[in-house]
Amino acid sequence: MSDLLLHAGHVAAVLAAVLLAAHLGRRAARAARQPEVVGEILAGILVVPAVLAVGGTTGLAGVLPAGVVGPLKVLGQIGLVLFLVGVAHELRHGRSGLGARAVGWVTAGSFVPALLAGLAMAAWVLLAAGPDVRGSAPAPALVLMVAVALSVTAVPVLARILEDRRMVDSPTGKLAMAAAVVTDSAAWLLLVVAVGISGGVLVSLILLAVGVAVTVVGRILLRGKAPTAIAERFPKATGVGVAVLALLAAFQFEHWGLTAVFGAFVVGLAVPGGPWAGVVRPIMRTGRLLVPVFFVVAGMGVANAPRAAVPWAAILIALVLAVAGKIGGGYLGARLGGQDRRTALTVGVLLNTRGLTEIVVLQAGYSAGLLSVQLFLALVVMALVTTAMTGPLLSLIERRARRNAAVPRQLVPDLPGGTP
């Protein structure tokens, strides 16, 4: 009994340390005028390498023994699943209030060029990169995985940036969010296909059909008067029930060969809007609290991987293609959709935000064996850098707009009689 209590105490202590590291990471990010998620991801991923650097393998084994790592992995998965239920719900019920032409062009610009950039990166990995970067994944799965990785926009991080900059209700903010929602929905579906290819295409298609059926039937049942009344009257108890269903679905789909992400999305998409939003929000907040544990587990996987040289070429290629695909594609799409240059550039910069969503996608691909540790590291760096770029680039656009607005007044000569 004492050993059990000691073990539970060890897990609780590590969990508290992880949450404290995440808190400090968020504060550091705010001080650096960066999205909080950048500091949180860095803090989580660097916990294990920091312990390893200070105490070596012996110190790491003492802080994170096998008996503690197992519960941490479960907690990280639980946090991820609960958080993604909220993400899926927001994707399903987000509304832009904008014209279909503008949203359509920006969405196409955000997705298609980024997807092509991902295909170009995958071609480099297959044809020119070394075996350490290539890994051993089937070529079709690898190509699709890399294409998805460069196509993602982090909807939760984007929403936070828009809120911090008071752009939520602006036409530019709405346009970027609408395009991001559609793009991410397609990217998540392609991720499931990529993971499923390695386990068998036919099985994956069957499971996708099962997921769609569960989503449709679930929405029909939950929109009934009785379930809606229960959700309004007992939101906490209903939230617990939805969370349990999401966890069961996630781990079941993972057991069948797909990623747990798919199960979380099935439940999140099945939950209706309206009063059900009050049920989903606490689920998402709880998951958000535990997501840093997921980052620590990801960092442990990287730290335990075979040592290799830093993949500078992969990092540089990923950054160039990612920025070109999102900022360039978003700008082009917005211009074709009738937006002015400043709006188009702002939309492109916003859509270049990857953050947490990208890390989740990459971890899913890494866990499924689709990404080598070197390619995983290169894409993680790309995700962090592109997210960190968003704030400074937006500030630069704003400064240029203010400067350009002031120039005409300074250049107009005074007319005779003192009349400007």
Automatic annotation (TrEMBL):
Transmembrane segments: 6-25, 37-62, 74-91, 103-127, 139-163, 175-195, 201-222, 234-253, 259-277, 289-306, 312-332, 344-366, 372-394
Cell compartments where the protein resides: Membrane
Membrane topology (UniProt): Multi-pass membrane protein
Annotated ranges, domain Cation/H+ exchanger transmembrane: 21-394
Recorded GO CC terms: membrane
Entry keyword set: Ion transport, Membrane, Transmembrane, Transmembrane helix, Transport
GO molecular function, one term: antiporter activity
Lineage: superkingdom: Bacteria
GO biological-process terms attached to the record: proton transmembrane transport
Name the UniProt record assigns to this protein: Kef-type K+ transport system membrane component KefB
Origin organism lineage: Bacteria, Bacillati, Actinomycetota, Actinomycetes, Pseudonocardiales
